Amino acid sequence: MAVRIRLARHGRKKAPFYRLVVADSRSPRDGRFIELLGTYDPMTDPSSIKVDEERAMHWLKVGATASDTARSILRKSGVWEKFEAGKKQAE
């Protein structure tokens, strides 16, 4: 089973709100997911990002791949740099 960290869209028309989720890559965008990692609200100024860093690190370490947008959000929250530093430290 290929596991991905990606966004699930919620909110109403022209007012998006996203959840950062861990899901099977075969499930639909807004469908079933394994775990909720955080939220992203692009409508606020500045955009609000909330991520459970501990759980995100766990999923990245066990092999979950992040979509391009999810990777960008993880970078903004600082989780991606910690993950990269941990990979370099293990080498």
Please write out the topology.
Elements: E1 3-12, E2 15-24, E3 35-41, E4 48-51, H1 53-61, E5 65-66, H2 68-77, H3 79-90
Parallel strand pairs: 1-5
Antiparallel strand pairs: 1-2, 2-3, 3-4
Helix pairs in contact: 1-3
Give a structural overview:
With 91 residues, the chain is of the alpha+beta class. It has one domain: S16 Ribosomal Protein, Chain: A. The chain is 34% helix and 36% strand. It has 3 helices and 5 strands. Strands 4-3-2-1-5 form a 5-stranded mixed β-sheet. A hairpin with a 2-residue loop joins strand 1 and strand 2. The longest helix has 12 residues. The mean pLDDT is 93.
CATH class, anyone?
A: Alpha Beta
The shape is: flat
Overall tally of domains: 1
Second rung of CATH, namely the architecture: 2-Layer Sandwich
The CATH superfamily title: Ribosomal protein S16
Q: Helix share of residues?
A: 25-40%
> In angstroms, what is the radius of gyration?
13 Å
**CATH fold label:** S16 Ribosomal Protein, Chain: A
Helical stretch tally:
3
Provide the succession of SSEs: EEEEHEHH
Strand order across the biggest sheet?
4-3-2-1-5
| Share in β-strands | 35-45%
Annotation, overall tally of beta strands = 5
Overall pLDDT, averaged?
A: 93
The largest sheet, given as strand count, sense and whether it forms a barrel, is:
5 strands, mixed
Terminal-residue CA separation: 26 Å
